[in-house]
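Input chain follows. Return structure tokens only.
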Amino acid sequence: MSSDEIEIKGFCPPRFAAVKDAFEKNFREGKEIGASCAVTIDGEFVIDIWAGYADADNSRLWEKDTIVNVWSTTKVMTALCAHLLVDRGLLDLNAPVAKYWTEFAQAGKEKLPVKFLLSHMSGMAGWDRQFSIEDLYKWDYMCRLLAEQAPWWEPGTCAGYHAISFGYLIGEIVRRITGSSLGTFFQKEIAGPLKADFHIGLPAAFDSRVAELITYPSPIHGDANYVDPEWVKQHFPINAKVFLNSPPITEEVTGSRQWRAAEIPSTNGHGNARSVARVASVLACGGKVGNSRLLSQKTIEKSLEEQFHGTDLALMLPISWGLGWGLNCPERWVSPNPRSFYWSGAGGSVVVMDLDARLSYAYVMNKMEPGVSIKSRSKKINEALYASL
């Protein structure tokens, strides 16, 4: 996209001009197709911008109400659902999962506490067997497999990112306690009260607003960045089981009605930067935004207690885990403020919550880039934001 074609829409006051410049630079350098960025302070939007196109052919503009699959940024919404139940006294993070999900007490998991699921320390980072896209749509089946299998390591001793299983594990606990699916609970208790345009299980009526995800080609044998799967299985078995047992989720899959309608609470939430930042503002503001008090600051503070700091067995990166989100740390810097936390989605989406600045920041896009955790595009915007405060 040439510089004369770039039109940044929305609002960004002069104070945050550097944020807008960083956002625009990504387009000028050809790193974006369509994207949105939003920031709240004290629960009020101070930045809400978007630009580009909602498809690879540049035939459909990215509009104010465009939404897109944000991948693992969805996990923040899922963790928030769990913490709402904690705050209401319905869920004890130190209690065994089996207290709420009886069938989970199999294969040595009788005493495995809920908090190990939220901190990715349960050993339930994935499924023992390979599964298909169609299997992901079978909630009871996927949960039954998790209930039956043994942990991949001694729970509580280390962490391994629960890339897809996180949504089923937390979602089933929410379902057992409330009688509602996680997507339904989220819509009723969080998205609805906040008027946030975020969906875990997208109604067909919203399909016309969904941006087309543009993935990157997987490396093949002979490419410089190709890694032999057999080598990965031998040297990094947890990573291999997490990522190689799951099927490739292609553009064709994410564009299907079946994928969008499904509730996969770790992976397939649909929203934009505005809706992600809106939900995140509740966490950044101590549980209350405007007239909506969703949970207490005490519960949020408890979720920021470090559970693990080291190399994650699945991500193979150093990380600090709280209860449901990554914590600000030297290896994964997201803020100059200590009480900051975050998570990101495959390809580049990210959300940051900062209790000290009472700030939430979200970036969402449709052109994916390889790698995990905070990506270069959002990092530059993030740095510009804090330099502007």
